Amino acid sequence: MTNRPWDTLSKEEIKQLQENFLDWYDEKKRHLPWRMNTDPYRVWISEIMLQQTRVDTVIDYYYRFMEEFPTIHALATADEEKLLKVWEGLGYYSRARNLQAAAKQMVADFAGKMPDTVEEIASLKGIGPYTTGAIASISFGLPEPAIDGNVMRVVSRLFEIEADIAKASSRKVFDEAMRKIIPKAAPGDFNQALMDLGSSVCTPKKPECPVCPLKDFCLAYKDDKMTDFPVKTKKQPPKPVYYVAAAIENSQGEFWLVQRPENGLLAKMWTFPLLKIDETHYQQLKTGFNKEESLQMELLVAEEDKAEQVLPFEEAHVIWQKRHLGEVTHVFSHLKWHLLLFYGRMIGGEAPEKMPGQWVAKDEFSKLVFPKPQQKLVEQLDKNRRDNKVF
Ligand code: SF4
């Protein structure tokens, strides 16, 4: 990029920009639980939770997490199941696992403390440039930028930066611009001011420029081009994936649950048995099984009658309800899961042979870690039960 408007700012202008902004932050800053002090553990945990998750949602999780794991040491030695249970519902579970891995690193290499140099902070598992910048500036007063999507939006408008924010290589442009304006005396407040401005004033669609503390310096505002920035190429939509989900109940009112593999998406979490199918098959099941207007529960599979079995679970001992219980969808960053929920009763209470797992009573569900799609399936099952739509 040849055009670098931040290089044309005089020292006085930069000083003025910083003062305006920090005054605004003093007056308007959000009072959030992790801002009570600048303890690096609090900053770290909150910043990891805030990735991909709204502040309102994070607050309760943050309190619960701090209660369960008040120190780096407590986190390092926590039982993984318990850790994931506390994280349940926040999604992106690798974040929780990385937190624990980094806590172990700190115990092993840094006497159980968060290190205080940029290089060492960045060497911790799961801590990328943004979180490094946030911890370094807020907790240790180092003039490091913390650049996330919100900050890129503000800074791209401030300087009319045309670099595509979807590209990792654009980051260095924002890094350069930020290093020019971040004050050495209050880098943490400055970074947090940017985070707050991005979420409250310099919003994606309707920035409230007249009340913005940066308006006197903002090129996009001057040119009335606010919504032209940031420049971002369209992301590929998440790839659809189709599953049949089976809520299989035995005569004791227990459900068959399976644990996902050690690695990969939703590793080691519990779900109803899921069977991946192609879209055509999925749509056939979705419409074909829903034609029945009457809620009379017709049985799809007669006892021991394998030949009639239509659902793609090769189980001889399940009687499936003809009508499916509805569809649940869940979007991950790169995938969109479509899950069609079916209900089946075990005959004789034997375990489904081809789906290794265990029987779990409904009131014991809360003891296992369920990913969001499974939580939605359980809600869907409960809803059908309340409406008397389960046979
Ligand atoms: S003046 Fe408007 S576009 Fe510029 S930083 Fe402020 S809110 Fe954003």
Can you tell me the residue ranges where pLDDT is under 50 for at least 5 consecutive residues?
A: 292-310
Quantity of strands, as a count: 8
Tally of distinct domains: 2
| CATH class group of the largest domain | Mainly Alpha
Provide the helix percentage: 25-40%
Give the SSE order as H and E letters: HHHHHHHHHHHHEEEEHEEEEH
CATH architecture of the largest domain: Orthogonal Bundle
Termini separation:
65 Å
The CATH superfamily of the largest domain is Hypothetical protein, domain 2
Write a structural description.
A hairpin with a 3-residue loop joins strand 6 and strand 7. The longest helix has 18 residues. 39% of the residues lie in helices and 12% in strands. The chain is elongated and about 80 Å long. With 391 residues, it is an alpha+beta fold. The termini are far apart. The strands form two sheets. Strands 1, 4, 5, 6 and 7 form a five-stranded mixed beta sheet that branches. A three-stranded antiparallel beta sheet has the order 3-2-8, with no helix packed on it. Helix 2 packs across helix 3. The protein contains 14 helices and eight strands. The protein has two domains: 224 residues, Endonuclease III, domain 1 (Orthogonal Bundle), CATH 1.10.340.30; 148 residues, Nucleoside Triphosphate Pyrophosphohydrolase (Alpha-Beta Complex), CATH 3.90.79. Iron/sulfur cluster binds next to helix 9 and helix 12.
